[in-house]
Design a protein that fits this description.
- By secondary structure, the chain is an alpha/beta fold.
- The protein has 14 helices and 13 strands.
- It has a six-stranded mixed β-sheet with strand order 1-11-10-9-12-13. A five-stranded mixed β-sheet has the order 4-3-2-5-8, with helices on both faces. Strands 6-7 form a two-stranded antiparallel sheet.
- Helix 8 crosses helix 9 and helix 8 runs antiparallel to helix 11.
- The radius of gyration is 23 Å and the shape is globular.
- The structure holds beta-D-glucopyranose.
- Beta-D-glucopyranose binds next to helix 5 and strand 10.
- The site of beta-D-glucopyranose has 16 residues, from helix 5 and strand 10.
- It holds the Pfam family Hexokinase_1.
Length: about 475
Amino acid sequence: MSSGSFVEVPKDLLKEIKRLEELFTVDTAKLKQITDHFVNELEKGLSKEGGTIPMNPTWVMSFPTGYETGTYLALDMGGTNLRVCQITLTEQKSEFDIIQSKYRMPEELKTGVAEDLWEYIAECLLQFIQTHHGDVAKLDKIPLGFTFSYPATQNYIDEGILQRWTKGFDIDGVEGRNVVPMFEKALQERGVPIKLTALINDTTGTLIASAYTDTKMKIGCIFGTGCNAAYMEDCGSIPKLAHLNLPPDTPMAINCEWGAFDNEHKVLPRTPYDESIDTDSPRPGQQAFEKMIAGLYLGEIFRLIMVDLHDNHNVNIFAGQDIGKLRRPYTLDSSFLSAIEDDPFENLSETRELFQNQLGIDPNPSELELIRRAAELIGTRAARLSACGVAAISKKKGYKECHVGADGSVFNKYPHFKKRGAAALREILDWPAKADPNDDDPIEILAAEDGSGVGAALIAALTLERVKKGNMHGILHPENFH
Ligand code: BGC
């Protein structure tokens, strides 16, 4: 325990805490086993037969030099917000100017009809351009990088066939189709002067944006509403692209879509709570790894534990209280767990207030101990499992030393996530103890540059540049690249 003490916790509650500890603790041996399986699955995803992890080639075929220039629009359709940016990559090496607007992604759009989604996005873009450029009728088309952070097959960089929705999205008629024409139709109908030059994943954007300012960057990760990573592969190591006869040493960024790791449930230590989340999700059987790690699910795992300990175990926590609010699925997001883990007081008074204010529940002191421990266990498991993915890519590529750029609400805001992840990476990769606590780790997971803004702009720039030089691989509409 990092706070409080167990002296007053009744025996049956202690037993439950012990049970949760057993369910949620992932020891070093397990981390290593998961990582080894992960390495195999990464390989399988690149093979002709394919595997569970999609390992999507992205047609991002180089790292930036830092000398890219030009003005680009970037559209970020993440899990929570819609963001429109205009990025100017300046003459100054690795520098940029950015203006941006955020729009709320209305909840009903996430499970509504496709047309409404594209219309809403097109409206936001139109508003942005009108505000910053005036009359759209007088404008030349502006190049846009579209960050579409869902698994998509890309035979071309300006194409994205949605494999499946993730992060709770469930919009009919989009899965299995190329989203670019749907998006472009909505733009045309409103006369929005945009040409799409790249559809990108947030992880690829993160990788490229981070490499713009730091040449040691080898992997881009998102630990946010969803969870995923991208890294640079050589075309010669991607058997599923062999038919294209690309030069074997040509780089190709791979969007791993590692959220799908272990959908077969071979190695991940899933608990009954994880199983329940999966069963009740819009896409059961998908995103097994993501559902144990990502921000969308952390609060829900916690909620399920609390409801279970109220209903199904002898302990009957919150006895006699109305837990109606707690019964509502997805009522707690990961910031709720963050607040519990951040509670600085030994008597957990902030946690108590949180429960009173948000849930109308007044936990007693021993229940508060249990609450704190449950949050720690969920947060720690998420951080430790995340490290398996980073370790697996590093092992596969033989990276002994590098930087990993990471972004997302869990990475940036969840207490101790970075520290716990770094500790797990050390265990998995058997690094010796640090001589000086201030020494860097051989592989450091660092806060990334803005991937879905600057990264998208850079990828648009890199693609325009390579087309200019005659590299037409993975370009569907060359006419948009002049
Ligand atoms: C999506 C990925 C994305 C990740 C982080 C996952 O649910 O499938 O494409 O990179 O979330 O946003």
